[in-house]
Amino acid sequence: MKKTLLFTFVALALASVSYAQIPNSDFEQWDSSATYHYNEPHFWGTLNSNPLAQLLNVVFVSKSTDAHSGQYAMQIQSKLVSTTVAPGAAASGKIHINLSPISFWADSGFTTSVLPASITGWYKYTPIGVDSAFIHVFYTHWNGSARDTVGRGSDTILTAASTYTMFTVPIMPGVAAGPDSALVEFISSSVDSARNGSTLLIDDLAIVMGTNDLSFDENNISVYPNPSHGRIYIENKKPNNTESRIEIYNVLGSKIKSFELTPVSTEIKTGSIPAGIYLYQIVEGENHILKTGRLNIQK
């Protein structure tokens, strides 16, 4: 079973600017290190700065010209460090690693005051053997003594993809306070079974604003009953002629079902979906998210 990753968030000296998007989200900006002869994605923290990796000249994260758009993408690769294969990792903050046993934690992040509906991006993944890559997202708020989780992206698993493939990480709201920082992390392998050479390419990250930024009155849309036993109903008090759908995700962030919606009221049978807790988002047109939430399906 995949080991649980430990994330520790520390207090930030917050700047006055709040980012609506992830800094250097297209990975076009890179900083060079003359001492260790590698490039770092601007604003992002990587395991390249780990002292043992530097001593052994191991580079986990590098600039790739195999980009989804623009000139560059971020390449993250699992590598052999001494006698241990460690996953490559990059985070929108500072990232740390222990090699025995392997564990990660990250602190800092980018400043933000808004909670989005989801984070999207594009990836390629070439695993070695039966390996997987992972995405973790946390939106937090400093309450004076500790960090509260304001929103959390479902732990998203990325599988093999030879061409650029879009991913979506829905953000599940937590405590009521607004966020003051966010952390996004990419890992190129399973922590407890990393394979030397598994390679993840990431490019063109984007934040999708929806109901979490209060730009839409989500009370116009009702999803009930919840918990559900066999069927749910979606009603829209202010319908229009734009096509819309409900997308249902499991707790790993994988989309398992998508249903087209009629303008006013739609009945959806849930008998084919196993009992459990799911995330849903109601999307209008290409990617305008009208509502997000949890769905409890019971048998």
Fold and architecture overview:
With 299 residues, this protein is mostly beta strands. It has 1 helix and 24 strands. The strands form 6 sheets. Strands 3, 4, 5, 8, 11, 12, 13, 14, 15, 16 and 17 form an 11-stranded antiparallel β-sheet that branches. The chain has a 4-stranded antiparallel β-sheet with strand order 21-20-23-24, with no helix packed on it. The protein is elongated and about 60 Å long. The protein starts with 29 loop residues before the first strand and ends with a strand.
What would the keywords be for this entry?
299 residues; mainly beta; Jelly Rolls; Immunoglobulin-like; elongated
SSE blueprint and pairings:
Blueprint: E1 30-33, E2 38-41, E3 45-46, H1 51-55, E4 61-64, E5 73-77, E6 79-81, E7 84-86, E8 89-91, E9 94-99, E10 102-107, E11 110-111, E12 118-126, E13 133-142, E14 147-158, E15 161-173, E16 181-187, E17 199-208, E18 221-224, E19 231-236, E20 244-249, E21 255-261, E22 265-269, E23 276-284, E24 288-297
Antiparallel strand pairs: 1-2, 3-8, 4-5, 5-17, 6-7, 8-16, 9-10, 11-16, 12-15, 12-17, 13-14, 13-16, 14-15, 18-19, 19-22, 20-21, 20-23, 23-24
Helix count equals: 1
Q: What is the fold-level CATH name, i.e. the topology of the largest domain? A: Jelly Rolls
How is the biggest beta sheet arranged? 11 strands, antiparallel
What proportion of the residues form beta strands (DSSP E)? over 45%
- Tell me, rounded to a whole number, the average pLDDT: 80
Radius of gyration: 20 Å
CATH architecture of the largest domain: Sandwich
Instruction: Give the N-terminus to C-terminus distance in angstroms.
Output: 27 Å
The count of DSSP E runs of length 2 or more, i.e. the number of strands, is 24
**CATH homology superfamily of the largest domain:** BT2081, beta-jelly-roll domain
Can you tell me the overall shape? elongated
Succession of helices and strands: EEEHEEEEEEEEEEEEEEEEEEEEE
The CATH class label of the largest domain is Mainly Beta
Count of individual domains: 2
Q: Would you tell me the structural class of the helices and strands?
A: mainly beta
Stretches with pLDDT under 50, minimum 5 residues = 1-19, 211-217
The helix content, as a percent range, equals under 10%
Oligomerization state of this entry?
A: single chain
